[in-house]
Amino acid sequence: MVVTKLGMEAGMKLSRGRVVAAVAAVLIVGGWAVWHPSIAPVEGRAAFPPEQIARGAELAAVGDCGVCHTTDGSRPYASGRGVPTPFGVVYATNITSDPDTGIGKWSEAAFRRAMRDGIDREGRHLYPVLPYPHFTRATDQDIAAMYAFLMTRAPVHADAPPNQLPFPLNQRVVLAGWNLLYLSPGPWRADPAHDADWNRGAYLVEAIGHCGACHTPRNVLGAEKGGQALSGGEAENWYAPPLQAASPAREAWTVDSLATYLHTGFDAHHGAAAGPMTAVTDELAKVPAADVRAMAVYLASMMPNPAPVSVVVHDGANPVFAGACGGCHGVDAPMTRSGAPSLALSTAVNAPTPRGVIQVILRGLPWREGQAAPYMPSFASALTDGQVADLAAYLRSTYSDKPAWSDLPAEVAKIRGAS
Fold first, then answer.
1. What is the pLDDT of residues 207-229, one digit of tens each?
2. CA 147 → CA 46, 53, 65, 132, 255, distances in Å?
3. With contact defined as beta carbons under 8 Å apart, do 46 and 53 qualify?
4. CA 333 – CA 174 distance, rounded (Å)
5. How far is CA 50 from the centre of its chain?
6. CATH says 16-182 is which class?
7. Is the pLDDT reported for residue 117 higher than 70?
């Protein structure tokens, strides 16, 4: 069944022994809750109303289903993408209507159980890389719409690669205990203290959009830390900044700026989406503007209003910056003169970790065909680890009043080695 991205706590360093010990404890607690019955297969393809399929497509875009379940654009939703976690790699499975390798034999009840409980049609536990701890809050109507959309995708016969997990984590029985400890099923409930837009946005962010899966820190067993929702996390070795009062943004996120960023991947006062967030904004571009704005209303209500930032103008003394960055980001560069945001406004430059800056230097911003979006080349092959570390330190000291980052060379080597 489906899996999607799982953001992991940035500083988590687990030894194999610690993982095994933790898993053993979970097994003792929850091993009794292992067995689940299979749900009878369905035969043939059901018909669905066009409007239900269309709404399912929009919800699938909010939920980033295609981001993890598509590696070949000519075969959407046919699996193959590996999601890295501190425990190993979990591969997204085939969620096309293929009856043998996809979900073609799944009834709506089987699909709903997977989305809410993390149990597939045959009764097997699914890894919480599928964000069922968030999807469990989705309404019956929205789950039915997503089911209609996926069941009308072209069938593709494709098996996902086997997961790369060590024993005993490759034994799905451990997930019974994980669910007992961390899964809290139950319907999402509107907050009567807020209006309809806020509540719609809260539902999309917390349930279907599962933003906390990346933007919330996690404990040693990979569960989101209670009481720290949206306070910052990690996604595929990229820093996922806080989406609440701890946000490092140097200029206030407004409803308008958030809506623009989420729908286009760029805002003139904050910068461009990078890393995993690029694909998220590509998906949100397919979502009705009213839904994206509702998400912005909810998120903006939790964002701080930071003090005005004083833009520090670099003096050009750093040769790496002058050679690699100055042509676009220098004071007199055409892009800067045309109104591109100063690096002083960059969330990555002002973040508590250098991970975002290092990743952007090494990976760049991809060319997005057919879109008027920012582009930046990769410097992974042009700069050494030492030069990347030197450049990151220069950006931090020149464009931010935050404390210097530590252990930059080691962080650069780690991030480059993880690619």
1. 999 999 999 999 999 999 999 99
2. 11, 8, 12, 15, 31
3. no
4. 55
5. 29
6. mainly alpha
7. yes
Q: What is the mean pLDDT of residues 300-321?
A: 71
**How far apart, in whole angstroms, are the C-alpha atoms of residue 137 and residue 116?**
7
Q: Which of 26-40, 54-68, 242-256, 366-380 has the lowest mean pLDDT?
A: 26-40
Which residue in 232, 199, 172 sits closest to 9, CA to CA? 232
First to last CA, the chain: 26
Distance (Å, whole) CA 84 – CA 288: 31
- Say how far apart CA 219 and CA 210 lie, in whole Å: 17
The mean of the pLDDT values for the chain is: 87
Q: Percent of the chain at pLDDT above 70?
A: 86
The pLDDT of residue 129 is above 90: yes
| Cα three-residue angle 222-8-246, rounded to 5 degrees | 115
Asked if 358 contacts 415 with a C-beta cutoff of 8 angstroms, the reply is yes
Residue 155, token pair as written in the block: 């069938």
Q: Which of 281, 267, 181 is nearest to 222 (CA)?
A: 181
For position 44, what pLDDT does the model report? 79
Where are the extended beta strands (E) located within 298-410? none
Distance CA 387, CA 42 (A): 58
Q: Which two tokens stand for residue 36?
A: 């689940």
DSSP state of 91: E
User: Is residue 281 within 8 Å of residue 263, measured between CB atoms?
Assistant: yes
Q: Enter the CATH code of domain 319-417.
A: 1.10.760.10
The CATH 1.10.760.10 portion of the chain extends over 319-417
Of 238, 239, 256, the residue nearest 303 (C-alpha): 256
